[in-house]
Amino acid sequence: MTTFEETGPRTPVVEPTRVDKVHPRAKLRKSVRVILTVIVTFVMIVPVLVMIMTAFKSRADIVTPPPKVFFHPTLEGFLYLFTDRSVLSPSNLEAERAHPGDLNYWQKLALSVGQKINGPSDYVGRLKNSVIIAGTSTILSVILGLFAAYAFSRFKVAGKDDLLFFILSTRMLPGVVVTIPLFLLYKQLGWNDTHIGMIILYTVFNLSFSVWLLKGFIDEIPIEYEEAALVDGYTRLQAFFKIVLPQAVNGIAATTVFCLIFAWNEYAFALMLTSEKARTAPPSIATMLGSGGLEWSAIAAGSLGFLIPVAIVTFVLRDYLLRGVTFGAVRK
Amino acid sequence: MSQNVSNLKDAAMYPRQRHLSNRAITNIFIWPTLALLIAMNVFPLFYSLYLGFTNYSAIAQKAPVWVAFQNFSTILNDKNLWQYFATTGRYALMSVTLQVLVGFALAMLVREKFKGGSLLTTLILIPMMISPVVVGLFWKLMYNPSFGFFNFLLGMSDPSKSPDWLASRLAGQPVPGLALLAVAIVDVWMWAPFVMLLVLSGLKAIPDYLYEAAAVDRASSWFQFWRITLPQVAPLLLIAVLFRTIEAFKSFDLVMGMTGGGPGVQTELISVDLYRIAFLGQFRTGYGSALAYIILIVIIAISNLYIKYLNKSKGEG
After folding, report:
1. Largest separation between any pair of C-alpha atoms in chain B
2. What's the CATH code of the domain at B211?
3. CA separation (Å) from A112 to A92, A107, A289, A302, B111?
4. CB atoms closer than 10 angstroms to residue B291
5. What predicted TM-score, i.e. pTM, was given to this entire model?
6. Does the pLDDT at position A1 exceed 60?
7. Which residue in the set B26, B120, B137 is minimally distant from A41, CB to CB?
8. Which of A96, A209, B183, B260 is the most buried (most CB within 10 A)?
9. Dihedral through CA B236, CA B237, CA B238, CA B239, nearest 10?
């Protein structure tokens, strides 16, 4: 009797080949497909490229028709975004220009558009608020979510499916609907326009997401590891901290980053519940006014603060993106 | 089952060791989360149900007065609100349909692996993650008829002949619906990649032998698409559709960044109007709460479909 080794191909077939994919026409089709993909991708990211480009245009270059593809790059937008300036009168301008030696780069840049830097703009403080609120709320929602996800994954919980359904359903609520009663509640508590109010709100906002996503990750860790640890004399808590957490570290990292991005991007709650002290970056970028309407160069510079983190995250988390955007419902 | 076994083992091997029972751990682990969700989501919902039956205003110094169903009957008889609901529905239909078509096409395009393919796919996914209000603002600049890139790249560089998208005007003539379409286009740009991602995951799960069998039988690619690809991807596509429909009904950030409801009320989606009622001008909190409840019922209806479907597909998988 002949074995497979005797009759089969001399070298193992490494590349999976489908019978309908070896025809020359199929190969031609493939190269057409590749070229088409490149073109389509380019079209899809043109707005992103324009966004980056606009951030480095001067105010004048942005509003001159037709839009310029080639231009002299400048950091004017960042100057408008981060500093509070006043217009100099011609005589003061002359006086300032007389000794340019003592000025730093930004002061010179301001001087070149006839302005003087008075100090940092409100936006700097709002970015700080964003960092504090997004950071703290993310840590809280991941920690709380981790505990809840572990319990849901490993223990018998009465009405588990209903509870999980309830947790998910809170995320489906439209922000505007929840905000009206919260606004009144916060008014009673004195929490409107405070960091603590926003941190708690964002924690809850991300909690349903983090429970669902983390439960998916913990479900994938074989229960036998913990059982072995329990047999070895670990307590449940020790097993959780020493066995499960290290195994789930990728999932925890992915969840953390998603929560951070959601909190960083959030606009509706911040618009309605904050005004000055705790206002975050997204609602303030929308009101970036200059002389005669919206200050486009500042807005474009500010939008980089949302584009760059997201671009990095998309690349780092590309394998988890599907799980993230579907609450862990779709895995692969 | 396996937990019970380990419990038995625990009890048998370490009878005197003091540690928390599983039930205690469960409670300690779950209740902080549940308590927060109840305090911040359930309580407000009941509170706003009550407010919906009052004429309360958050800025008036008066206590809420019970007006029974007056708010609800006013809303249901308000032609403007019906119009905003209809606008929201049109917007949802437009953007979800386009997203499915574009997303599906993208998925079919990038489904086969080639060198650098995953890099391109990842690039396409970036818009989905950017803050919608920033996207809206930025596209407002893109759509500008004189110095925006949108018309320019489409080859319509003469402002007097090209559309002014966000003003709903074409060559000086008003074209109703253009602004809503413009918002939908941006939504499609952001979220078609989401549909692509889901469809791709469905495509990956289709076993190769189905196509091989079809090829052996000399089935046309058209036939293969309708009889193999589409039915196999349908469950995930449905998830994508429901998910995006819910989001479209909740849509707020994008429109606020781009048009703020204008021109006139052409892009006044229902959540934008709710914001206006409850948080601007007179702060009609009671009336707004009633409207919020009506929106909520619509969204719960869609969400239920979604979650039902999700559970079903999970049970199969």
Report:
1. 87
2. 1.10.3720.10
3. 13, 9, 20, 21, 52
4. 28
5. 0.87
6. no
7. B120
8. B183
9. 50
Residues 245-304 of B with CB under 8 A from A: 246, 249-250, 252-253, 256-257, 271, 274-275, 278-279, 285, 288-289, 292-293, 295-296, 299-300, 303
| B23, pLDDT greater than 90 | no
**Cis before A246 (ω within 30):** no
| Polymer length of chain A | 332
A9: its two tokens: 């191909």
Radius of gyration of chain B (CA): 26
Give the helix/strand (H/E) hosting A120: strand A115-120
Same domain membership, residue B161 and residue B32: no
Of A37, A51, A296, the CB nearest to B110: A37
Q: B173 forms bridges with which residues in the sheet?
A: B170
Residues B151 and B28 occupy one common structural domain: no
- Token code pair at residue B61: 């110094």
**Contact at 8 Å (CB) between B84 and B156?**
no
What part of A 303-322 touches B (C-beta under 8 Å)?
Answer: 303, 306-307, 310-311, 313-315, 318, 321-322
**CA-to-CA dists, residue B237 to B101, B194, B195, angstroms:** 11, 10, 7
Tokens of A247: 């195994």
CA A241 to the chain's CA centroid: 28
Domain residues for B147?
78-316
Q: What is the pLDDT of residues B291-314, one digit of tens each?
A: 999 998 888 888 777 777 767 765
Show the DSSP H helices in chain A as ranges.
4-7, 24-55, 59-62, 76-82, 90-98, 105-112, 122-154, 160-172, 175-189, 195-219, 223-231, 236-239, 245-247, 249-265, 268-273, 281-285, 296-316, 321-325
Indicate whether B71 belongs to any domain: no
B52 falls within a domain: no
Tokens matching residue B289: 């709460």
pLDDT digits (tens, 9 = 90+) for A222-279: 999 999 999 998 988 899 999 999 999 999 999 999 999 999 999 999 999 998 899 9
Return the structure tokens found at A159.
């009405």
Are both B17 and B101 inside the same structural domain?
Answer: no
Per-residue pLDDT reduced to its tens digit, B270-293: 999 999 998 888 888 899 999 999
B66 CA to chain A: closest CA distance, Å?
Answer: 16
Nearest CA to A260 out of A219, A306, A194 is that of A306
User: Between the CA of residue B11 and those of A132, A151, B21, B214, B271, what are the distances in Å?
Assistant: 45, 20, 10, 59, 56
Write down the residue that tokens 């941190």 correspond to.
Answer: A199
Q: Is the CB of residue A299 less than 8 Å away from at least one CB of chain B?
A: yes
CB pair distance less than 8 Å for B120 and A37: yes
Q: Does a structural domain hold residue B218?
A: yes
Residues across chain B: 317
Residue with tokens 């003469």: B158
Using CA atoms, how far apart are residues A302 and A181, in angstroms rounded to an integer? Answer: 32
Q: Which residues of A194-230 are buried (b: 16+ CB within 10 A; e: fewer)?
A: bbebbbbbbbbbbbbbbbbbbbbbbeebeeeebbebb
| A193 backbone φψ class: left, alpha, beta (φ>0; ψ -120 to 50) | left
Measure the CA angle with vertex B176, ends B171 and B182; round to 5°: 80
CA distance A203 to A33: 44
